[in-house]
Amino acid sequence: MKRTTALLATLTLLALASPLAAYIGPGAGFAFLSSFLVLFLTFLLALFSFLSWPFRFLWRAARGQRAYKRGAIDRLVILGLDGLEPTLAEKFMAEGKLPNLARLKKDGGYARLKTTTPAISPVAWSSFMTGSEPSKHNIFDFLDRDPRTYLPGLSSARIGKPKRTIGLGRYLVPLSRPEVRGLRRSVPFWKILGEKGVFSTVLRVPITYPPEKFKGHLLSGMCAPDLKGSQGTFAFFTEDADKVRKREGGVAVLVRREGAVIRTAISGPENSMLRKPEEIRLPLVITIDREAGGAWLAIGRSKKFFLKEKTFSPWVPVVFKPGLGLKVRAICRFRIASLEPEFEMYVTPLNIDPEKPALPIAHPFIYSVYLSKLLGRFITLGEANDTWALNEGALDEEAFLELTYANHAEWEAMLGNALAKTPRGMVAIVFETTDSIQHMFFRYLDKAHPALKAAPARKSAAVIEELYKKMDDLVGRVAAGLDGRSALFVMSDHGFKSFRRGVNLNSWLHQNGYLSLLPGKTESGEWFKDVDWTRTKAYGLGLGGLYLNLKGREAQGTVAPGAEAAALKAELGRRLTALKDGPNGPAAIVRVYDRDAVYSGPYKDNAPDLIIGYNEGYRASWDGVTGIVNAAVIEDNTKAWSGDHCIDPALVPGVLFSSLKLKTDKPSIMDIAPTALELFGIDPPAHMDGRSLVDAPARDGAKRRKEA
Predict the structure, then answer these.
(1) How do strand 250-254 and strand 234-238 relate by DSSP bridges?
(2) How many whole angstroms from its chain centre is CA 701?
(3) Which of 31, 260, 503, 664 has CB 3.0 to 4.6 Å from 178, enough for a Cys bridge?
(4) Which of 138, 121, 137, 225 lies closest to 189, judged by CA?
């Protein structure tokens, strides 16, 4: 029986190697459950839920009454606006352009919110949910590295193949479950709330994939992969051979027209059930209709629809068949950018179909099915807004904004449902809209930005102002629906600054004798391809990390632990903070953090040895992030991705608006979790580093209610 269950659970395992995405690195593979299994388990769970409902209702009602009696509030709503910049929020409030945030500040509280070291989204949101510093939750970047190979992996999850398989013709049938393991440690505060009887709905908070069990509902956010196992791989179909080149975050496909017909295919996941794994391809036939101003798209043998030029399709279900009668389902959207003179079409990454999920992306896993049936299909990819498609020219600015705000509308609909269905308890949601649009349009706030010189300016700073106004309107609508027994926090995990110049840490290390290349090599390919580790002392990886090539830790370590390592860290810190952008230019790095000085938790040894605090205007270069070593230490950033926050944390605090008065003007993102617990009358656990921000303990609120 156990073997049969394992077989069913892993029969459609497809281990995937993803293309490189420079911002977050490659994925680590993917495990699929068949649609049959998902629907079968859904039926069983629904049946069990129906039969046990009366007992669960009585138990939860009794327990919930006790829980809410302890608290000062009945409901807490947390709106996460990823990357909202305090200087811009303060400027627009002063100009009267953000009336709802200004009202929240006046009636409750506002402060700049201290972020984490480093100021990177997965790190900061992990500290938000756990109330602890990074070495207690084990997330230090989007990437970490395998010291045995020096190669990167996603820091938040590990996904591996089943250990046992059996051959069946051309197939390898798994006999054990694949490994799907989250790497974030510590306990999210909503799990503690649930243990005390307080229900929570958590929507798209980063680093919640794979979803964990708790008493509530959750839809995974940032770092949930696409069907190819990557953090988002778009497709760009074109008749222009000059545009078929390597694309970061996507693939370009050259197509040929025969009359009015183009025959091509959609590239799906790699099918590792085969003895010789190969990519699953789904036939796509495009029939151009010039008179109608669009084209007919036929996918596989069944799905056919008409799409007008420069118009996004709705979410389109697509089905891949790895064999043995199994089906793996995804959804994507199409946009024809041009019919003439060359045909060009963009296709979003292949998202897990929330209505028929190929693996759990929610808790309970039927929650995504419920949302899809209620609200329609929606984006499930963690990095939802396709910034690389804009960077690479597969989307223009108008199309990117249209797609981004369409995703945002889906999340607002989810929030509305959660607020309606959670009259008591906690609702938390993170909108990445603010982060994505600022990444791609911040150059319009910086007239000296190199990207404005490299390409004509098609938009203006009004894009950012409009973004802030839209978020203010959202805050106003949410606040209007809350009563006196509800509390509202509006927060960001970090701020934003212009990203003008990139620093290749590995090139600097090479030129200064800390990193060596193989004999005869003057440059290295991606991921340290040509590095001579036997003569290397240090290397950079990720958006802010520097590692020593330590003996006994790295496979070919050269630096002895202890005094030698400490001396090298101190030397690197001094020299890097002295790095100038030109003889009389500004410092590119303002501070270098020694992990032993800033971290004290049990996972400190997993952190980079040094964390680089870049100056405003600087960040790790695109080549540097991917392990390339070349002649350029500091160079212009000419990409549309023109704003960033992966710099010294002191330069990019977030924001915190509160409907309650705050008892400090220097809150930290780690303070949100213990504050939420105390508002519901629950003592925060001792491992939390944060402290409550509310003026009065939650129990006092309950006491005052009883006396009244």
Answers:
(1) parallel
(2) 37
(3) 31
(4) 137
Nearest in space to 533 (alpha carbons), one of 557, 511, 502, 552: 557
The answer to whether 667 and 688 are in contact (CB under 8 A) is no
Contact 691, 674 (CB under 8 A): yes
Residue with tokens 């098609």: 458
**Model's pTM, two decimal places?**
0.90
Residue 44 has pLDDT above 80, yes or no: no
User: From CA 415, how far away is CA 430, in angstroms rounded?
Assistant: 10
Of 37, 17, 44, 45, nearest to 29 by C-alpha is 17
User: For 91-95, 189-193, 243-247, 447-451, which range has the lowest pLDDT when averaged over its residues?
Assistant: 243-247
Element (H, E) at 232: none
**Averaged over 237-249, what is the pLDDT?**
85
- Provide the residue count of the chain: 708
Our measurement of the distance from residue 664's CA atom to the centroid of its chain's CA atoms, rounded to an integer in Å, reads: 30
Cα 254 from Cα 238, distance rounded (Å): 5
In this predicted structure, what is the pLDDT of residue 3? 32
Q: Which residues contact 553 (CB under 8 A, 6 or more apart)?
A: 147, 561
- Cα separations in angstroms, 481 against 75, 388, 408, 478, 657: 12, 37, 20, 5, 17
Between the CA atoms of 132, 136, 137 and 139, what dihedral angle is there, to the nearest 10 degrees? 110
Q: Write out the two tokens for 71.
A: 């608290």
For the beta carbon of residue 584, count every other beta carbon within 10 angstroms.
Answer: 6
CA-nearest of 654, 691, 545, 616 to 118 is 545
- Which is more confident, 315 or 269? 315
Q: What is the pLDDT of residues 143-156, one digit of tens each?
A: 999 999 999 988 88
| Average pLDDT, integer, range 408-421 | 97
What domains lie within the chain, and their CATH numbers?
Answer: 71-139+184-224+382-496+652-708 (3.40.720.10), 500-651 (3.30.1360)
Q: Where are the alpha helices (DSSP H) in 265-396?
A: 367-375, 387-391
Indicate whether 58 pLDDT > 60: no
- ∠ CA 408-249-444, nearest 5°, is 60
CA Rg value for the chain: 26
How far is residue 261's CA from residue 295's CA, in Å, rounded to a whole number?
9
